[in-house]
Amino acid sequence: MFDKYLIVDDSLRATADGFAFDARLGYYRGLGLSMVEDLVVTIDDEPVAREAIRFDETGGGAPLTLDEMETNYDRQWNFGAVATISVIASEPLAPGAHSLTLSEKLRVSYLPFPAMNSDAKTLEVAA
Q1: Fewest C-beta atoms under 10 Å: which of 35, 47, 54, 127?
Q2: What is the reported pTM?
């Protein structure tokens, strides 16, 4: 239902150690970070290793690895809140258009199965 809103338009950017983009939660309520079972990212049809992904819903707080999110019970990703997903890579992204996908696997208390949400966009990295 909210899949087309997961990746924030025009948010893809190169960083000194890879790239980052902004994302929203694909669920109509907030979730504790320990309930985000997985975030899967691909860039230009290349999957990103789980260990290279960092998540920060605080806008300047301490980014967490996905493994650290599993046991974080104090932080929450609220509906509509924009989080930063960073990827550590050997090189920054080159300027230009890149295809980006994000899949969220969420543990929702009243569902007997994980909720899966995905978005795919082509975004530009400024020169």
Answers
A1: 127
A2: 0.92
CB 92 within 8 A of CB 19: yes
Tell me: the pLDDT tens digits for 63-104? Answer: 999 999 999 998 999 988 999 999 999 988 999 999 999 999
3-state secondary structure of 6: coil
Quick one: 75 exposed, middle or buried, by C-beta within 10 A (0-12, 13-18, 19+)? middle
- Do 21 and 43 form a contact (C-beta atoms < 8 A)? no
In the chain, the domains with their CATH numbers are: 3-125 (2.60.40)
d(CA 103, CA 119): 7
- DSSP assignment letter at 107: -
β strands within 33-95, DSSP E: 36-43, 46-47, 53-56, 64-65, 76-77, 83-88
